Amino acid sequence: MTGVQKKKALAKRVKSRSTTGQAEGPYRSVDRFDSLVTEDYAGKDTLDKLFDYAVERFGKADCLGTREVLSKENETQPSGKVFKKLILGDYKWLSYEEMDTQVSQFGSGLAALGQQPKSTIAIFCETRAEWMITAQACFRRNFPLVTFYATLGEEAVAFGLNECGATHLVTSVELLETKLKNVLPQIPSLRQIIYVDRKSISTAGYPQGIQIHSMHSVQELGAKPENLKPVPSDLAVIMYTSGSTGRPKGVMIINSNLIGGMAGQCERIPGLGPKDTYIAYLPLAHVLEMTAEISCVTYGCRIGYSSPQTLSDQSTKIKKGSKGDCTVLKPSLMAAVPEIMDRINKNVMSKVQEMNCVQRTLFKRAYDYKLEQIKKGYDAPLCNILFKKVRALLGGNVRMMLKATVMFPDRNIVRTSVKHYSCRDSYTSGGYTKHDKPHPRGEILIGGPNVTMGYSRSEGCNNEDFFADENGQRWFCTGDIGEMHPDGCLQIVDRKKDLVKLQAGEYVSLGKVESALKNCSLIDNICAYANSDQNYVISFIVPNQKNLTALANQKGIEGTWEEICNHPVMEREVLREIKEVATSIKLQRFEIPVMVHLSPEPWTPETGLVTDAFKLKRKELKNHYLNDIERMYGHK
Description:
There is one protein chain. By secondary structure, the chain is an alpha/beta fold. Among the domains are: 112 residues, Luciferase, Domain 3 (Luciferase, domain 3, Roll), CATH 2.30.38.10; 131 residues, ANL, C-terminal domain (GMP Synthetase, Chain A, domain 3), CATH 3.30.300.30. 32% of the residues lie in helices and 22% in strands. It contains 19 helices and 27 strands. Helix 4 links the parallel strand 5 and strand 6. Helix 2 crosses helix 4, helix 3 packs across helix 4 and helix 8 packs across helix 9. The longest helix is centred in the middle third of the chain and has 20 residues. It is globular and about 70 Å long. The chain starts with a helix and ends with a helix. 40% of the residues are buried.
């Protein structure tokens, strides 16, 4: 059998099958049908053991890399806004052995400051090497690590710190001075604050009773013996959510949850090892990024740190003419949430639209041809010449991108395979049942050693989302609606919380509407909205500034960006394109928004309208645009 034939056979094979023979499952991967994978390496059943094993094997190899900041400049835009721009140098690397030394010293220093095993310690910090050093120090010393997104607001962080009762906090100078300082009086349990930056700060204005240290000074406090090693059932992390549905909730994750989840993740990455370079830019307070980085350390990959603002040459903090992190690092692996993937796709397609007619036609034909060849098991290498500039946007060497559910690498179409899952027998209130034709549908439940222990003591948290069956198997109710295909692949088709029943009884999937309409050239982001006592959908939209401004010029409309967005002609033009796109992809009449509001301000985690993973915060968006909702629904 040739290589191509093997690829085709793998792509067509059944990926999973029901363990009971019933349509609702549970389904399990055929690769692990008899038992689920629980460990990467036999006997390495806690996070500290994984790290020790990695140091033993890869000692002098590069592990964590950080770019030097050579200079900072302020750049004033024509609108008057001032943007900070960076000129960055090369990556400077810590070896595995050097990282191990820092981990040991920091863990010892934390113990010297009174941190006790099995007592929580919090981290509120941007994605950087010091975050991972802190995490490994805590795993080694059996300090359960409580994580918070760096973009959480003051009140949300104060709430989480009070709830977990941590006495020690690791953070950065910027977050300490801009977000924490004002709310420290509201956090009576906090005693020690450690900032990761190599600089000195003034402690004036901070509450009495709180000591502030640099990470470097804590590492110099001296040796303190490790007196309680973790076991697989010990709590490793309490990971606070980004608060998309209100107050952030702490998810309790034990060592065996992370070990099992990473073992399954790494099985899906062929050839993972020392030849790989991973670029780290997503929030480390997100389980995808944290497990991806720990997995990379485990397998000898090097990790180069980045941020969404410095990722590419065109990123917002990169000075024009300077190189972004991808260009310098040339990663082979990276993680991406759907919104990031959408942005990459939109940026590429925007460049394609700027090509002349011949170039555009050639690109489109090459793209369609390569996609068809991939489905057949071929590569179409000649087409890659046309795509060289596209690959260069991410450094030119990316071989695999990781998402929250890691697919089989031999899948050639966009449907998802996970290790162990079930479709609930129905979600009838949304119109989905196990008897649906041609494929059964229902709520997706995930079971396995990676399923966490549920939410911590947050009031109002629904721990009913987690349960154990009669065999002791833990399950998580995802809230996603799935459709099972004959080849054992699971396609996510909806989200329970995104379903709204209109006045006339039709169900609208807001997520489906948003996903479809992001194809509009005038739209960068969209939030669909519907009330059950109304019979039509409306939407809030962040327009594509370049395309909408060009259209405004064609229409003879002048003014500031805000004035263009608020112009009724521009609203009508966006609605016109929405209807064209919606009709071409066959959205139902009742699914198509009939009124829109154009927002001149983008939705970022800093605005509080989207999470760090750029998921819409529907409650916050509703409150933010309440006046516009009343206007569009005709309320007085």
